[in-house]
Amino acid sequence: MKNYRMKKFTRSFILPGVIALFAISCNKGKSEYHLTATLPANIKADSLYLLDYKGDKIGGVAADKEGKFVFVGKTTEAAPAGISNEKLHLYIPFILENADISIDVKDTDMNTDIKGGEIQSIVYGYEKDPNYEKLNLERRKVSKEQFTNLDMTDEPKVEEARKIVNKVGDQVYKIKNDYLKKVVADDNPPMAKAIASTMISDRDYTAEKILARLDKYKKEIGKSDYITYYEKMMNEFKTMEDNAKTVTVGSDFKDVMGKTRNGEEIKLSDLVAKNKYTILEFWASWCGPCRGEIPNLKKAYAKYHGKGLEILSVSLDSKNAAWIKALDDEKTVWPNINIEGEFQNPQVVNYGITGIPASYLIDQNGKIVASNYDLREFDLDRTLSKFIK
Fold it and tell me: Domain Thioredoxin, which positions (predicted)?
């Protein structure tokens, strides 16, 4: 597991309110959902899947004669969901509720127009703000312009590109975040407030604060599977935060054990005892930033392995075949192991990891001497050069 604040609302935010009222009047008393998704002509898909907030498939459909993907069913409560096609790397989030809902994907950049549903209209109202739409398009354009054909080994140029992209991105996130805060603060249905609370990314919205709000909304709503699920997630996140504090710089490492692609068992403690320094790297084949760090690790390994550096990559892949393919594609030469259970594996929980890549530099005495951002990109070599001469 990437704040937002916002100015006073202007007239541009009247439209979502009107849409919400229209949706309420049209969908009042609806006992099932009728979801229609359309893709542009240049995006070909054999099928689309409807996923719930856990990422589980609710169902899949092929396109009808008109090229539309139609899902019909019933849901016990309004809750986050998404339509997906893995091959196309397509995922469109929305709120699934018993209503007539249309999802129109407009282009390959996945610009999307979603209509229908009371909670959807309230929670995602920021997408109708002209400033948000304009800046979001600009963010995508600037990102493409800045990073296409960029030499990622040129640190000054990479930092400048990020600065330019982040300047626009911060404005986008600010509009979104402050809109969601207003949804929570205003007189809206409790379920809209609950979902908005889980979508806010702000340091002010701590796990404790979110849990307190969810508890209040659950009492107003009654039974809610989504709120119960998210409460469980937040409590697990609090545990992870506490565990992460036990593996900071200066702490002792915690052992990790897993099997290589050939079934050989490797323990981190064995590598730590044999080498001056060991990098522990948690990653997965599906993690783009993780794969992006592999060239940096390769350079570091080539430069420092002969001086006492070892690396242990720990994959959180649930699909063994995907992990093996990634190893073949990346052609890494240091020890790689896979562990079961992904983020729920007790060894991962011990490190309090909520996102990957997660990296730790451990000395031969078993002390963590550097971690995470100090072991990324250009900082990796700078950090290693301080310890390995």
Answer: 247-389
Q: What is the CATH number of the domain that holds 343?
A: 3.40.30.10
pLDDT at residue number 29: 55
| E strand spans, 244-321 | 257-259, 265-267, 277-283, 309-315
Question: Which of 317, 329, 311, 288 minimizes the C-alpha distance to 375?
Answer: 311
Task: Confirm whether 175 is domain-assigned.
Answer: yes
Are 256 and 268 in contact, with CB atoms under 8 Å apart? yes
Angle at which helix 190-199 crosses helix 225-244, to 10 degrees, equals 30
Where is the domain boundary, 206, 239, 272? 239
To the nearest 10 degrees (0 to 180), the angle between helices 225-244 and 207-221 is 160
Boundaries of domain holding 171: 11-239
Q: What is the pTM of this model?
A: 0.78
Q: What's the rounded mean pLDDT across residues 192-198?
A: 95
The DSSP 8-state label assigned to residue 206 in this structure reads -
What is the Cα–Cα distance from 101 to 376, expressed in whole angstroms?
43
- Is pLDDT at 262 greater than 60 in this prediction? yes
Res. 9: pLDDT tops 80: no
d(C-alpha 33, C-alpha 274), whole Å: 60
pLDDT at 204 over 80: no
Q: Report the domain count for the chain.
A: 2
Q: What is the pLDDT of residue 4?
A: 28
Tens digits of residue pLDDT in 340-361: 989 989 999 999 998 999 999 9
* 234 and 254, same domain (yes or no): no
